[in-house]
Q: What sequence folds into this?
């Protein structure tokens, strides 16, 4: 939906992408603006208010904006990844602890009153005083689908990340039966062709070779330039290699950039190292003909809104002009009417 922008709804786009990473609550707004013709902030805000979409830990145990249906359908399939990451981070702190008991205690607390993880950890520690509060809270985060309640996620509104169970928020519990075949096919319809390693990197799951193998003629097989086997949803046509991709400004952690183990299809290893940070943040990026050529951020102060674009390689005058034109449209979307808007490209 980057070539060209889509004319469909925000709900349909979130579903097509099978979620949008939302560690930064405003990122999905920019991601949808990049993909939907005429997207408005209220188009997503209204979906959050009526609970058609929710924000919770999903793929790789990171916060994603997903449709409520996809949350209920696929959250249980991701539990193995949640459990593995929980043990890898807090294993020693959890030794000898009944994790199911902690999870159920945490669910009850979160359903009585939405809490931040820090608050939840302190409340649980009153029952398990010899345990680390952060570890206790993360048991609940991993084992109980916890949605971040509003106003968190609403544009222009502040609020701590407070949680309640998805069962209480939506009035339905996640499905228990596995849907891994559907999960893989949904990934491929959004991001394929891809390797099994790509699917695993996106989902946080392991052992997906067996899932791909049993899909049979529902998938198509390809080989890339390095003789790696790629798979795809057999119903999806390949894009024409001669298509020219327009300039697009992508949000932080955008799925187009991070949804593969091998990201060279969209960013070179050199540029990936250049934009990497010690804490794993992925900045807003600029695509030129389908590849990351720059990063961007908006700095607001003293009534001004400056879009600062850092170009990663030598860029033609025509491309710089197109970046400025698309950047102006982004700034008009992000800035208020009374803010003075300016764009800076460097170097």
A:
């Amino acid at each position: 939906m980057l070539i060209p922008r889509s004319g469909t709804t925000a709900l349909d786009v979130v579903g097509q992408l099978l979620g949008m990473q939302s560690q930064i609550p405003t990122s999905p707004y920019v991601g949808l603006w990049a993909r939907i013709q005429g997207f408005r902030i209220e188009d997503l805000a209204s979906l959050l208010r009526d609970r058609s979409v929710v924000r919770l830990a999903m793929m790789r145990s990171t916060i994603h904006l997903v449709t409520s249906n996809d949350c209920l359908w696929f959250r249980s399939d991701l539990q193995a990844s949640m459990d593995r990451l929980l043990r890898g981070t807090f294993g020693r702190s959890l030794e000898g602890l009944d994790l199911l008991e902690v999870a159920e205690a945490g669910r009850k607390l979160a359903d009585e009153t939405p809490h931040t993880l820090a608050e939840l950890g302190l409340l649980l520690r009153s029952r398990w005083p010899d345990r680390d509060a952060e570890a206790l809270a993360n048991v609940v985060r991993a084992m109980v689908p916890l949605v971040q309640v509003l106003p968190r996620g609403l544009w222009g509104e502040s609020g701590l990340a407070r949680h309640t169970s998805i069962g209480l928020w939506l009035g339905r519990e996640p499905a228990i039966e596995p849907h891994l075949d559907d999960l893989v096919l949904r990934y491929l319809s959004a991001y394929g062709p891809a390797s099994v390693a790509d699917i695993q990197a996106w989902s946080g799951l392991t052992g997906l070779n067996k899932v791909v193998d049993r899909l049979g003629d529902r998938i198509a097989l390809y080989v890339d330039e390095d003789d790696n086997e790629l798979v795809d949803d057999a119903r999806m046509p390949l894009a024409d290699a001669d298509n020219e991709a327009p300039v697009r400004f992508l949000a932080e952690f955008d799925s187009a950039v991070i949804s593969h183990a091998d990201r060279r299809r969209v960013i070179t290893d050199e540029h990936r190292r250049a934009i990497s940070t010690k804490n794993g943040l992925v900045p807003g990026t600029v695509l030129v003909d389908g590849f990351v050529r720059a990063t961007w951020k908006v700095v607001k102060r003293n009534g001004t809104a400056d879009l600062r674009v850092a170009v990663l390689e030598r860029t033609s005058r025509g491309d710089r002009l197109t970046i400025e034109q698309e950047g102006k449209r982004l700034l008009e979307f992000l800035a208020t009417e009374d803010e003075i808007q300016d764009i800076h490209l460097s170097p």
In short: The longest helix spans residues 317-334. Residues 180-233 form a domain with the Arc Repressor Mutant, subunit A fold (CATH 1.10.10). The longest strand covers residues 291-301.
